[in-house]
Specification:
By secondary structure, the chain is mostly helical. It contains six helices and no strands.
Length: 140
């Protein structure tokens, strides 16, 4: 198995756990406090991972452009997490998570337009099925 596939599967597993566990954690607190605690833990573990695996030698590779894009990515992540935590606090996790995973459609579209990644029938069909699945899940 290719490393990126393995990492993606592991990521999918932990992402699946995250929402349900977070819902339990938000029981008697605001979504903002819950997100603050979660983000603090994420920050700590990411820094620990960075230093343990000696990635510090890469710091000199940072450019103003890469820092700018990473900061903007951080801002979009922050906004996503704020609204996601608010949604899972007041809604059903199964629906919220499903809608959230619909972000793959936005990712696909932007990857075609901005990154010039190839548009293949397989990707179009898969994206279409995801869209149909989202509509089925949220249809009342």
């Amino acid at each position: 198995m290719k490393n990126w596939i393995l990492y993606s599967v592991i990521s999918m597993f932990f992402a699946g756990l995250t929402s349900v566990i977070a819902k339990f954690g938000l029981k008697n607190i605001s979504s903002d406090l819950g997100l603050a605690v979660r983000t603090t833990v994420v920050f700590g573990f990411v820094l620990l991972n960075f230093f343990i695996f000696q990635e510090t030698k890469e710091i000199h590779n940072l450019t103003t452009k890469s820092i700018l894009f990473l900061v903007v990515s951080g801002l979009t992540t922050t906004l996503s997490w704020i609204f996601y935590y608010k949604a899972i606090q007041i809604g059903e996790v199964s629906y919220v998570a499903s809608i959230d995973k619909g972000s793959i459609l936005i990712t696909l579209l932007l990857s075609f337009i901005l990154l010039k990644e190839p548009v293949t029938p397989k990707i179009i069909i898969g994206g279409g099925l995801i869209l149909i699945g989202l509509i089925v899940l949220v249809w009342k």
